[in-house]
Amino acid sequence: MSTFTAPKGTYDLLPTVNSAAYLAIRERLAAPLRRAGYGYVETPVFEDVKLFSRGVGESTDIVTKEMFTLARRPESSEDLALRPEGTASVVRATLEANLHKLGNLPVKLWYSGNFYRYERPQKGRYRQFSQVGAEALGAEDPALDAELIILADDAFRSLGLREYKLLLNSLGDQQCRPVYRAALVEFLAGLDLDEDTRRRAGINPLRVLDDKREAVQAQLVDAPKLRDYLCEECKAYDEKVRELLTAAGVAFVDDPKLVRGLDYYTRTTFEFVHGGLGSQSAIGGGGRYDGLSEMLGGPALPSVGWGLGVDRTFLALEAEGIELDLPATTEVYAVALGEEAKNVLFAKTVELRRAGVATDLAFGVKSIKNAMKSANRSGARFALIAGDRDLAEGVVQLKDMESGEQTPVSLEALVTTLKEKQL
Ligand code: AMP
């Protein structure tokens, strides 16, 4: 133990605990995107604070309470913040590089990285968390919304997850939402709400629907539903998304209270929730944000995207008792008895690695007993053991760590023998 521990709300990924699983989860969540024409994008972990206040929204907790802002340097005029989410940065990068003018529309991008929110930490809610995300920019097509939802569902399924639900809603558009908004404002005015909530209702009444407090939810039972206010175009769009999901075998549940309550979020909105995670149940979410590009000074660029939470996906796998089939980190572990043998096994270790066999070697001066303990702990299927006598005969001992069986193998044949055993 040192004087220091990881900062509150963060944790280390370690080979002994979870780091291999995290790498595999990121890979698997991204794999369906790679097969669907999405290109990898990486943006800075910090951006102009205003990108987030505009791109995430002034009325959201993320912007008002949870942003990690960086102290401004005396010589700088930039106010920077650690990114709380990925969409605003990806839209910014797309506009900056003119991707929407250079190639096919929609521009399809995916990313993987860490995000930062100054939240009250608890299980499943951290101040640094990891997401795999996808954005498709520049097309208004229900097939695109359906594609993204199907890709997220495929990603979760490929990990073996089953105990989750897809919640689906439509937020309407610039035509029908203002009518709904007016009805909601009138309804909210008649409720007994605290000042904070009232202020939030003033900026963005839809967000009040998202309030997690029971006392608030109890008053919202009879709130007008957006679904009843959708215009014909939005209804048809929503119907088409549902039709495509159903045809692809993706089940969903209507959730009229599901909002991403900002003016530039439109139509399709969705969340994947897992049954085994307690209060922090969302393992991923997203939706259509047709107005965001314009909010950031760009042209109209109707878009849709999602972010899937890697930390919570890990917890969901745990909750379902799913063990990922992870590749062995060490297949072969070499133990040399003596200086000369060490030279030979070191050379063989290098050769085996170059041939694609994951090999490790006992380092430092160790007794044979300790070296064999290390071999055991490494999880290797085979140990290679060699002493002076073996070398004189041109062999090494190959020990099957499971059966304990030990056979001499000639030095020349070693790489081919182990390559064959790899299968
Ligand atoms: P959001 O941008 O809030 O819709 O987040 C998308 C996904 O990221 C959520 O569904 C969660 O899986 C994950 N996520 C968001 N915030 C956190 C957090 N503080 N800790 C862990 N995971 C998070």
TrEMBL record:
Q: Does the keyword Transmembrane helix apply?
A: no
Q: Taxonomically, what lineage is the organism?
A: Bacteria, Bacillati, Actinomycetota, Actinomycetes, Kitasatosporales
Full protein name: Histidine--tRNA ligase
The gene coding this protein: hisS
Q: Name one GO cellular component term.
A: cytoplasm
Positions of the Aminoacyl-transfer RNA synthetases class-II family profile domain: 24-327
Task: List the Gene Ontology MF annotations in alphabetical order.
Answer: ATP binding; histidine-tRNA ligase activity
Protein location: Cytoplasm
Record-level GO BP terms: histidyl-tRNA aminoacylation
Keyword Metal-binding belongs to the record: no
Cite the EC number: 6.1.1.21
Query: Where this protein primarily resides, as one coarse class?
Result: cytoplasm
Identify its protein family.
Belongs to the class-II aminoacyl-tRNA synthetase family.
Q: Please tell me which top-level EC class this enzyme sits in.
A: ligase
Q: Which InterPro entries match?
A: aa-tRNA-synth_II, aa-tRNA-synth_II/BPL/LPL, Anticodon-bd, Anticodon-bd_dom_sf, His-tRNA-ligase, HisRS-like_core, HisRS/HisZ, HisRS_anticodon
